[in-house]
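Hi V.,

You were right to ask for the full record rather than a summary. Here it is.
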Amino acid sequence: MFYNRQTGGSAGDTITLYAVFTDDAGALKDPDDAPEVYLYDPEALYEEVELAVSEEDYSGAVTSFTATRISTGYYKLEYEVPSGALEGTWFDVWVCEVDGVHTFELLQFPINAGLDADNQNIGNNTMIVVGIVTGK
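Predicted structure:
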């Protein structure tokens, strides 16, 4: 498995995580079924997620999804990060079978809290750009 990752996002954003599946020769290959993806927030320690993976017990995941097939070997997961989601390193575990062999990959992505307008400091030589969209 090879992963092309989005770099993360903010609470309230929709992020997209991609997975590319190949065989030993590097040719694109679909898993036997669409991968299951389990997400863990920053309250989970890396070691706890590793243990969950080794025991195949994903009950501690915040949520889970079935990835969407884009084309042969290409899959994606779109996730709307809840407003107020915990800031920090989130974990995503991709689980599937390829030619009957159970496989998984434990990855991570950053989430920040998003804009905190109460905590902004506008100082000298600061330019503010306001965009107005009409007709919606």
